[in-house]
Amino acid sequence: MTSDITSTNMRMGPERPGGFQVAWAVTLAAVAAEVAVWFLGAFVVAPTGLDELTEYAGRGEAVTRLAVSAGVLALLLGTWVAVAVWMRAGRGWARIVLTVIGAGLVLFRVGDFGMDGVEPAWWAACNALPDLLAAAAIVPMWLPANRARPRPVA
């Protein structure tokens, strides 16, 4: 008795719903945008974070503070990506955590719009981009087609 087994028949279950894939991609885009905004703010867009810290605390202390800031950012973004990996694997609690993160970032951004008042509109838009992407990742996670937990695909 022979069986015709193909690679498509070897799957353990259905593929991940498309909404999880979209949410994963948008979350990665939000993380990348957050890194870009941090780098631009620290070293490129005048007045840079490095310049302001150097004026306030001296060059050595400024470099130290930026290094600590980069380390904390890396830790937070790594945690964010790890939770997104769990969301992609179908963990319901991860969807809730990412929803709280996305909604929280948007609320903080809205509360911050009038605080600086001196930054150009294009820079405000750049600063808002990671937060808006994080919020946009919420929608595909909660579409009706994504309510069932996906099973691993071999």
Please describe the structure with a list of short key phrases separated by commas or semicolons.
mainly alpha; 0% strand
Description:
- The protein is an all-alpha fold.
- The protein has helices at residues 18-44, 49-57, 59-88, 92-112, 121-136, 138-141.
- α1 (18-44) runs antiparallel to α3 and α1 (18-44) runs antiparallel to α5.
- The model is unreliable at 1-13 (pLDDT under 50).
What's the layout of helices and strands?
Layout: H1 18-44, H2 49-57, H3 59-88, H4 92-112, H5 121-136, H6 138-141
Helix pairs in contact: 1-3, 1-5, 2-3, 3-4, 4-5
Number of strands: 0
Choose one word for the global shape. Answer: elongated
Question: Strand share of the residues?
Answer: under 5%
Number of helices: 6
Give the mean pLDDT.
83
The low-confidence runs, each spanning 5 or more residues with pLDDT under 50, are 1-13
Report on the biggest sheet.
none
User: What distance lies between the first and last C-alpha atoms, to the nearest angstrom?
Assistant: 25 Å
Structural class, by secondary structure, is mainly alpha
| Helix-strand sequence | HHHHHH
Radius of gyration: 20 Å
Helical residues, percent = 55-70%
